[in-house]
Amino acid sequence: MSSQKHDTATKKRILEILRTLIESQGFYTRKKLAEIYGVSPDTISRDFEDIRNAGFHIGTDQKHRYYLSPEKTTEQIKELLLISENEIDLIKKSLANSVSLKDQNRIINKLETLTSLPRIGNIIFTKPFLAKTAILFKAKKDKQQVILHNYKSTNSNSLSDRRIEPFHVSPEEDILHAFDLDRNEIRHFRISRIERVTQLNEDWEHEGKHNIIATDIFKISNKDQVKVHIRIKTGGYNELIERYPLSRASLTPAPDTTDEYDLECMVNRNFFGLQNFLLGYYEYVVEIIENEELRVHMAEKLRNINY
Length: 307
Fold this sequence. Notes:
By secondary structure, this protein is an alpha+beta fold. It has 11 helices and 11 strands. The protein is globular and about 65 Å long.
């Protein structure tokens, strides 16, 4: 093997080992990893050293099974991704004379979105979360069904077991795309709302129906979407981006004002997620500019409030 090919293979193996440690905390020994990747245990030790040199902390339990330290790993992510106010100001000045104001705001919103990633990291590096994603990734690879135990559904306000076929797992978004066997349709699930996962010894039956459906900014999947345009105050802006980071790309400063923002985006026609935000933070809502269906929907919700 040439030197270049060897280096490429080594880098690929190191990245795969890092992902394995993230997805399966405290599961693999050095010997087992050596067997998986077809190298010697000493080679795995050198790979661990390269990972440590990159700033990650690797530990072992009493049975010599390896894991990443969640706290130190999250701190590393923060250091890499956190953008300071001074850096944002410098970027704004650099953009001022080269792009339009609208493009400036769009770019700045995307950059500021990165500051929400360390908060997500606090979720994805916890042991329960990693244990669930590890099983989901394995079931996806094996093309087998799983049971999501005690899934907490906001829409139905219930706690139930769900038998599904997982075909797309996105830990960084806290989203699982799966075919729900009981409902006979594709559903999106929040991984953090699953108590635990059990892989079944039953193969997929509906692989031909496995299609990824886009979610809206509230992480609700629905092919039937409508456009909304809502003006909110600064307090609403803050609450929205903190609770729903995906909304940043759809928010722009409202014209002729310094403390209001326009939210323009496509949302599910049932208005799940959006209706809760509008009801919970009504004092920050200035106006529903578009659409009429949303106005009627919210008026009906208000009429049905009995407390």
